[in-house]
Specification:
By secondary structure, this protein is α/β, with parallel strands linked by helices. The protein has helices at residues 37-41, 55-58, 64-68, 80-83, 87-92, 162-166, 181-186, 197-207, 223-236; strands at residues 10-14, 19-22, 45-49, 72-78, 115-120, 123-127, 130-137, 143-148, 151-154, 172-176, 212-215, 240-242, 247-251, 264-269. Helix 8 (197-207) packs parallel to helix 9. The structure holds zinc ion (2 copies).
């Protein structure tokens, strides 16, 4: 659920080759901000990586033709190996007329450079010109952790040891922090589906992530409670920040370091 200050999860990495989105929640609406106008114009290619199919992670898809219509666009999400279903079959249910002008798998004509839907599987793969690594995760419906360009994105899952090796040495770790410790103690099913901020910090510390961003924040928590949650996480992993809409920072990916190259940027819109 979005709040007055936050949209649902959509993170954007700008690289020299194009744009990579990590989830496509309502945060995609922030592309209306003038700061993105030039960025959108200077790229011809976008890859949209989806952690799973829950509405808060995909509700921005309908706006992609509006923002990215001049580009070549690849949408990739967990495929049959992970969920038992092809991504295109799931997205076909996202809607056709009158909910959308055309069902998503038939969007080819809406993007000048072409459009494809790709199934992701566990492990390393090349998708839309990017090297992407995927790890299956438990959630109410299976989700996947994603690693691309030295950014690890682990959301909608619990604190798990498997995430440590997966995120090892990341420049940036974006991690689910839906619950604080009191929330976790009081939670029923949610505790089996999401992580705590301190759990995210333990993962970041063990993985030696250079920066932890606490994302997928709980809309029921007020600012004071989020601040307490942040301080508890930062006590474990000092290089921690709470995701806020429009926050951005630059980094150089270890596997992509090239002399005189401009740094890559992550834009953050978070629930
Ligand atoms: Zn979610
Ligand atoms: Zn979910």
């Amino acid at each position: 659920m979005p709040t007055l200050a936050r949209q649902t999860v959509a993170h954007l990495i700008e690289t020299r080759r194009g744009l990579v989105f990590l989830d496509c929640g309502s945060g995609i609406a922030r592309l209306h901000d003038p700061m993105f106008k030039e960025m959108l114009q200077r790229h011809q290619r976008a890859l949209v990586l989806l952690s799973h199919w829950h509405q808060d992670h995909v509700q921005g898809l309908a706006a992609l033709p509006f923002f990215l219509g001049h580009m070549e666009v690849t949408v990739a999400g967990p495929g049959p190996q992970i969920t038992g279903e092809k991504a295109a079959d799931v997205l076909a249910r996202y809607g056709g007329a009158p909910l959308l002008s055309q069902p998503l798998p038939e969007w080819g004509g809406l993007f000048r450079g072409g459009f494809e839907i790709v199934d992701l599987r566990a492990g390393k793969q090349n998708v839309g010109g990017e090297k992407v690594e995927v790890i299956p995760q438990p959630h109410t419906h299976p989700s996947i952790g994603l690693r691309v360009r030295d950014v690890s994105y682990i959301t909608d899952t619990v604190e798990r040891d498997e995430s440590i090796a997966f995120a090892k040495g990341s420049a940036v770790l974006l991690h689910d922090a839906w619950l604080d410790n009191e929330g976790h103690a009081a939670a029923g099913a949610e505790a089996a589906a999401h992580s705590t901020a301190t759990g995210a910090a333990r993962i970041a510390r063990a993985a030696e992530a250079r920066q932890l961003v606490l994302t997928h924040l709980n809309p029921a928590y007020d600012v004071a409670r989020l601040e307490r949650m942040f301080l508890a996480a930062a006590a474990i992993h000092p290089a921690t920040q709470l995701a806020t809409d429009m926050a951005s920072f630059s980094f150089t990916a270890a596997d992509d370091a090239a002399p005189a190259a401009p740094p890559e940027r992550v834009e953050i819109d978070a629930e």
